[in-house]
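User: Here's a structure from my thesis project, written as structure tokens. My advisor, Dr. K., wants to see whether a designed sequence matches the one we expressed. Can you design one independently, without my sequence as a hint?
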């Protein structure tokens, strides 16, 4: 683990509640209605997510209040709601939120979804959460170290004292070391459409430059194929820098399963048991 450094030096000049328009938001608006083609059936059902977080979920009370703050099309929020948790889902992309609401309505599940960037979370929620998820390599959309800290501050501000933040990230060290550019995924069959997803990665020489991924969905029909493609931009960071920024944002205890050889890792960060929450809004 890296050494601890003072929080003050990491907190950006921008107040945590400042709205940030991310490039990623526009990119995901267009992608929302096709996004489910990326998931396997097991991921789409939420089973993989619930198993992966079984330990942290077991430590919560049965009706714990959980925020899925990069909810995308809502797959993981809905899986948590089916388990009986009191769930809210937020995302900066209006398209993703619309798709999440549509999926909740299809199942008759009452999950509130709201468009909200991470830095704006304290303005949106008055009652704090037991657990906040930032899942699916979402944090890699922050463009600068300052934006990461402002986002983590936003997540921390909506947690109860002793609350938990769970972040899932790509292992950027491994991805940039290996530079595998073409990553085909297994064929998906959804609502009669056969789709072959392919990730095309670009790795510029410098870490701090935008990393563009082209997600290509190749659709196979009876006599022809056609494709749709979506650009997604990421800003890689070192694992150890994420840990430092979590501490800078006020998280006391930071654990992870980071491993040089693994493609992804999870970070579990806890707020201090005695930390005082000052919600800025009195919304439910
Ligand atoms: C890779 S997707 C992951 C979605 C979902 N968690 C999953 O695992 O499928 C990243 C999501 O983060 C959202 N996002 C990016 N920047 C954000 C921000 N600053 N605040 C809130 N959401 C953001 C995007 O709109 C997108 O839905």
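Assistant: Designed independently from the structure alone:
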């Amino acid at each position: 683990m890296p050494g601890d450094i003072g929080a003050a030096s990491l907190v950006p000049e921008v107040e945590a509640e400042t709205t940030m328009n991310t490039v990623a938001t526009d990119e995901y608006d267009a992608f929302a209605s096709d996004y489910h083609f990326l998931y396997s059936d097991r991921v789409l059902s939420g089973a993989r997510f619930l198993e992966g977080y079984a330990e942290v979920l077991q430590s919560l009370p049965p009706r714990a209040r959980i925020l899925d703050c990069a909810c995308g099309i809502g797959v993981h929020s809905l899986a948590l709601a089916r388990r009986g948790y009191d769930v809210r889902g937020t995302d900066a992309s209006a398209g993703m939120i619309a798709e999440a609401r549509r999926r909740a309505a299809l199942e008759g599940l009452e999950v509130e979804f709201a468009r909200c960037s991470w830095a704006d979370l304290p303005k949106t929620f008055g009652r704090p959460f037991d657990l906040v998820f930032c899942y699916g390599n979402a944090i890699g959309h922050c463009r600068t170290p300052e934006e990461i800290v402002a986002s983590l501050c936003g997540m921390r501000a909506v947690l109860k004292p002793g609350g938990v933040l769970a972040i899932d990230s790509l292992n950027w060290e491994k991805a940039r070391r290996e530079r595998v550019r073409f990553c085909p995924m297994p064929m998906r069959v959804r609502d009669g459409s056969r789709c072959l997803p392919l990730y095309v990665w670009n790795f510029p020489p410098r870490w701090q430059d935008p990393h563009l991924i082209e997600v290509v969905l190749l659709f196979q029909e009876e006599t022809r194929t056609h494709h749709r493609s979506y650009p997604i931009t990421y800003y890689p960071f070192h694992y150890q820098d994420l840990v430092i920024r979590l501490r800078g944002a006020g998280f006391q205890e930071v654990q992870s399963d980071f491993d040089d050889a693994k493609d992804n890792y999870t970070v579990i960060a806890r707020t201090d048991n005695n930390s005082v929450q000052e919600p800025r809004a009195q919304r439910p």
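When you compare it with your expressed construct, this may help: The pocket of S-adenosylmethionine is lined by residues 20, 22, 24-25, 28, 70, 72, 91-93, 96, 117-118, 135-138, 141, 151 (CB under 6 Å).
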